[in-house]
Amino acid sequence: MAIMNIRRGLRKHLLAGALVPSFLFVSHAIAFEAPSIQILLPEQVAAIADTFTSANTNKEYRELLDSRAEAMINTLKGGKDIALTQKSIDDAVQNPPLENAEWLKASGYDFKVKENQQAGIKILAPFWPLPRWQLQRSENTVTIVNLSASPTQQEHAIIDADAIPYLYFLPEALGPKLGAAFLRAYEKGDIGKAAALIKSTEIKTGAAKAHFNYPRPFLIDNNNIRLVADNYVAKDGAPYSASEGSYPSGHTNTGNTDSLLLAQMLPERFLPLVARGAGYGYSRLVLGVHYPLDVIGSRMVSQRNVAHFLNDPDYKKLFDEARDELRAALEKECGTTIAECAKPQGNDADPWTAPEARQFFNFTLTYGLPPSGLTTAEMQVPEGAEALLDALVPNVSPEKRREALKNTALSSGYPLDSQDPETGFWQRINLYEAALAAQQ
């Protein structure tokens, strides 16, 4: 009830244009300039976020959410009737039959983790020069998202958080039919190659967290964050918390990496999967354990990492093999083609395909944080970034895909933007809009 009262109070202040307490002040600046994108306030985004949660009353979508949560909890318990603790959840890993680790190990592929971690740290470096007021705005934004989150958003965020070792957070972006098929195939181990490859492609953020060593929102002096009780997975009522540094977000890195790779394997659901990655990052603000800058930074690095691997011929061979197994298994479960099974099922039953999902994604590009750098710099598409659109538009030339990325990019100057030709410009990529433009 207290949370609902806070949301009503925030709504009254925001929509009436009244003064908001200084600790809740958030910019009304445009988050994205495309003519077709509505300018949203955090309160409006929260209303959209509700449609992705169990607040959605559509029977098919609710069943999919319930199925994935039940399956995840059962896996965490190892099929036993035991109580979960946060430690046991944090220690969980994806094991057979969910993944085919032996296949990946036998390939001998070297992910060069340390090398890619250092590349990520360079991309994240624009954090250091940010002015103090910009860091404060980031803190204010997580506070308003955290305090205005509905109980169903809190539930969704807890399940997202505890799903990090697995792929259980992805089915909801596939729609009721394909999502249910994915869940069945995953549980049977029929997509084990894809599951192993996707999770192994996540370049962990521990090195970057140690490098930047920035405290989490709920650890800042005089913060107003309200940690969310886990009444949904561990079900012990203890507040969900997190350790290590805040910048960048490890969970967001996972959510974006997994969503982007599955979008490459299932381009029929490219846009909802891209939006789902953004939703996974948004969950971290709902829980009050990350700032918008943490989430934006991880989006940048995960896009770079996925593009980097897709441009590696040795990795691409593994990817193609895993993709083919996944698609064959899903067609078997669907009893029809992927194209048929993946068709949007309507805005209620399939909310990640709704127009509002586009608005939601574009908000998460900046979270309403205003520019603090040069706003007139020309966009230079990072080398190899066009690979992110390859599966979606295989018959479109690399040049045209790069053109789509350039023409839909954010303006320069937003937080974490960099004009470094070797490591910069990942912040400006708007993959959702680029995907739409590349298909025209």
Automatic annotation (TrEMBL):
One Gene Ontology cellular component term attached to this UniProt record is:
outer membrane-bounded periplasmic space
A Pfam family hit: PAP2
Alphabetically ordered keywords of this record? Hydrolase, Periplasm, Signal
Catalytic reaction list: a phosphate monoester + H2O = an alcohol + phosphate
List localization entries.
Answer: Periplasm
Top-level taxon of the source organism: Bacteria
EC code = 3.1.3.2
What GO MF annotations does this protein's record show? Answer: acid phosphatase activity
Xref: PROSITE patterns: ACID_PHOSPH_CL_A
What top-tier enzyme class does this entry carry?
hydrolase
Give every Phosphatidic acid phosphatase type 2/haloperoxidase domain span: 191-310
SMART domains attached here? Answer: acidPPc
Give the primary localization class: periplasm
- Family as reported in the entry's similarity comment: Belongs to the class A bacterial acid phosphatase family.
- Name of this chain's protein: acid phosphatase
Organism listed in the record: Pseudochelatococcus contaminans
